[in-house]
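Subject: DNA resolvase

B.,
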Amino acid sequence: MKKAVIYARVSSITDRQNTDRQVVDLTRYAEYSEHNIIEIFEEKISGGKRNVDRPVLTECLNYCKDNNIDVLLVSELSRLGRNAFEVLSTVKFLIDNCINLYIQKEQFSLLNDEGKPSIFAPVMIATLSTCAELERENIKFRLNSGRDLYIKNGGKLGRKAGSIKTLDMKKEEYKEAISLLKKGISVRNVAKLTGKGTATIQRIKKEFNL
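Prediction pasted inline below.
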């Protein structure tokens, strides 16, 4: 069986979004394709961040290289970068290290059965990443336009009064996570044990100096 790694990412650093659906769908694909999932990397970070500022993605790519992983599984190409240049750089890293890439949304594999990029792979990757970049810019434009109109009509931005959690409130809400962190359990494992996002656990660890 080929060794596979899953990389899943959502943009929201809050608990409103999670990577569960991506992981479940990719796990099903791996089982169907008879791939052995060696590790799962989950990240909550904005899609606008540069790849060098994505610690989990960096860890994932290095893990694939160091452990001779056969294929990296992602739900869609935009998970791998904020723009076409960064995506292509990541793809080059994978090709240089003979690591295949499977994109579930398009059901696309980077390498053929001989471990070589297909003739259409570079065009396909460039097209998909450019389309994803354009879509992000369109979303950003619509959000900014809506915000400006809201302010123009008298709306106010920011949290409502009383909506900010106090330290005691957080201590009660995240008491299980705090207890696990105090025992020296890693952020990723605490996130899995408590059902919270890794970004949330990282924030709690920092706020409580754990």
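The CA atoms of residues 81 and 87 lie 5 Å apart.

T.
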